[in-house]
Write a structure and sequence with these properties.
Layout (H helix, E strand, L loop, with lengths): L20 H23 L10 H18 L6 H27 L9 H24 L2 H6 L20 H30 L14 H18 L6 H21 L1 H4 L1 H16 L18 H6 L7 E10 L10 E8 L11 E6 L15 H9 L3 E5 L3 E2 L15 E2 L3 H22 L2 E10 L1 H11 L16 E7 L30 E6 L7 H13 L5 E6 L15 H15 L1
Parallel strand pairs: 3-4, 3-7, 5-6, 7-8, 8-9, 9-10
Antiparallel strand pairs: 1-2, 2-4
Helix pairs in contact: 1-2, 1-4, 2-4, 2-7, 3-4, 3-7, 6-7, 6-8, 7-8, 10-16, 13-14
Length: about 575
């Protein structure tokens, strides 16, 4: 008699039609998929959801893991299970890429990818379908124990070395090698996260996307187990067990940055309070981020809010007399919607791109969603170019605008930023900006330049570096490359190390730093904050990111960037 019920001990059919534990688990997974699908559709319609939605994010994660556990087993509907595993592998590879592209696109006014939502919701819909089929059909393994006269989809493929075409065997061997390579890469990524091994420029994308990597590598393990699920014997069983353990180990390690989110938030809260006073977690209001991290946004992407943008506005054309012949510098400006001032009230945020002073540009290369986000909150955000050094490129293959490259050192670059403030002072009214309330921010080389330009006005020697009508209210450097220009062949000048500019009157500073930064030593950020302390100025807070690396703020809705942005907007509200 063919088996038609559930699977495992106490399945449907033999013992008074009582469901067994596995069947109950599968029914629970079916419900979790349906709930994840429904709540996902609801979540995507909500503006500024609150922290309670993190429970939904946890449900999403557990449901995806449950689906992998289910589909790697021996189901009687093997094709649908392979379809799910393929969608998991390809979809979760595409999701962070699609989210990042939408986030970085200057004129993507939503910053969420429609395709991301389709992929994730399709995973839950397909997961529900597979779970339903499992409840109805049980497993082929159980069928064999009942006499083997039921439908057996495994009998014609992967059933033994003597079966299947030569092409099929070759394909299976290639897929096996590919999935094993994925697991090897996952182990390497895990070692980087745990031990802080320097992986080169790979570090800029690893920790903030690591949860996606963990799910992808676990999916590769599930596919391997599935491919060899029919084979019997001690060694093949050992192989399957080892693959399962490795996949799970990689996931656990890759989930550690996510697990550190509460630690990041608590330590950021303490650092903020000690430096600036007041509890940032108690600062609430319309237009402020409601919660420091939203796990559903990590998957679906975070909305930007409404904003306007103008691009490629020329603010300076160099002349021979200034040593800037041929130089043409532009900026993009992100503004709140017309008639809406928001919490920013027209405060200006000048953002300066990084790139080792030799590469980089405004726009997509400068994490554009930060510009979009703060513009939607009422700030006027200026994303500016400056003259790049013609020294050897930090990344040789990087493409940069030719009319911004010349024989420029750090002092020239800060001078260019100063020239932008001259333009801003004259044209502020055109953009609704307040030149008497300005913040400067940037990452890496841009962080060093932001710090140098922001600190210069309080030093007699550089007091005229910025326009006289510009009032710097604060600086926000991300992993600032202070004092490192000479190491890449760029003239440091007098402003290469902003730490020497710090004094008792320096504007407050909020600093982002990854603990595993392999490009800028984290001690550089510590030295910068210590310079404030030494000058008798307590208004500097360093927020460190566990396992965070250089560029770990790249993914806007990550467990690194969102907590910092939460603190950053409160910092700007306090001092604007």
């Amino acid at each position: 008699m063919a088996y038609t019920g559930g699977y495992g001990p106490g399945g449907y059919g033999e013992r008074g039609n009582r469901p067994g534990l596995r069947t109950i688990g599968t029914l629970g997974l079916l419900a979790a998929n349906v709930l994840s699908l429904g709540l996902g559709i609801w979540y995507l319609t909500i503006k500024e959801p609150g922290g309670v939605w993190n429970l939904y994010g946890l449900l999403m994660l557990l449901t995806l893991l449950g689906n992998l556990h289910l589909t790697m087993g021996r189901g009687v509907h093997k094709v649908w299970e392979y379809v799910y595993l393929a969608l998991h592998a390809l979809g979760l590879t595409a999701v962070p890429v699609l989210n990042t592209l939408a986030s970085a696109a200057v004129r993507d006014y939503d910053s969420r990818s429609l395709w991301t939502a389709i992929v994730l919701l399709a995973l839950f819909a397909l997961g529900a379908w597979v779970a339903l089929l499992r409840v109805q059909g049980g497993t082929e393994e159980k069928e064999d124990k009942r006499g083997g006269n039921g439908y057996s989809p495994y009998s014609s493929s992967y059933g033994g070395a003597s079966r299947g075409s030569l092409l099929g065997k070759i394909l299976k061997a290639l897929l096996t090698l590919w999935f094993l390579a994925n697991l090897a890469l996952g182990l390497y990524f895990s070692a980087v996260l745990l031990a802080g091994i320097d992986p080169g420029l790979v570090e800029t994308i690893l920790p903030e996307y690591s949860l996606f990597f963990g799910l992808i590598f676990l999916g590769a393990a599930a596919l391997l187990v599935k491919m060899y699920g029919r084979r019997r014997g001690f060694f093949i069983s050992l192989f399957r067990g080892t693959v399962r353990v490795i996949g799970l180990l990689i996931l656990v390690v890759c989930a550690l940055p996510l697990a550190s989110a509460p630690k990041i938030i608590n330590e950021a809260q303490d650092a903020y309070t000690k430096a600036f006073g007041g509890d940032p977690m108690e600062t609430h209001g319309k237009g402020l981020m409601k919660t420091a991290f939203l796990l559903p946004d990590y998957f679906y992407g975070a909305e930007s809010g409404d904003y306007r943008v103008q691009t490629d506005i020329v603010y300076y054309e160099g002349q021979d007399s200034t040593g800037d012949a041929g130089l043409k510098l532009r900026f993009d400006v992100y503004m709140p919607p017309k008639g809406k001032s928001g919490t920013g009230q027209g405060t200006a945020l000048i953002r300066i791109h990084g790139g080792g002073w030799t590469i980089g540009d405004k726009g997509a290369g400068n994490y554009a969603q930060m510009n979009k986000y703060f513009a939607s909150r009422g700030y006027v955000v200026f994303d500016v170019q400056y003259g790049l050094s013609d020294a050897k490129k930090f990344v040789e293959s990087a493409v940069v605008p030719k009319d911004v490259v010349g024989h420029y050192g750090i002092d020239d670059m800060v001078r260019h930023i100063g020239l932008f403030t001259v333009y801003l002072e004259k044209h502020a009214a055109e953009y609704g900006a307040n030149p008497a309330s300005v913040f400067l921010s940037g990452g890496s080389a841009g962080g060093q330049l932001a710090a140098a330009a922001g600190l210069a006005p309080t030093n007699a020697e550089f007091a005229d570096m910025l326009a006289p009508g510009i009032k710097v209210k604060g600086i926000i450097p991300f992993y600032p490359a202070n004092g490192l220009a000479g190491e890449v062949g760029v003239d440091s000048g007098a402003l290469g190390d902003p730490s020497i500019l710090v004094n008792a009157d320096s504007p407050p500073a909020l600093v982002y730093q990854g603990e595993h930064d392999g490009i800028v030593d984290p001690e550089t950020a510590h030295d910068f904050v210590r310079a404030y302390r030494a000058a008798g100025n307590a208004r500097a807070a360093l927020i460190e990111m566990p396992m965070g690396t250089h560029g770990s703020d790249m993914y806007f809705p990550s467990y690194y960037n969102m907590p910092f942005t939460y603190m950053m907007e409160r910092f700007m509200l306090k001092y604007r």
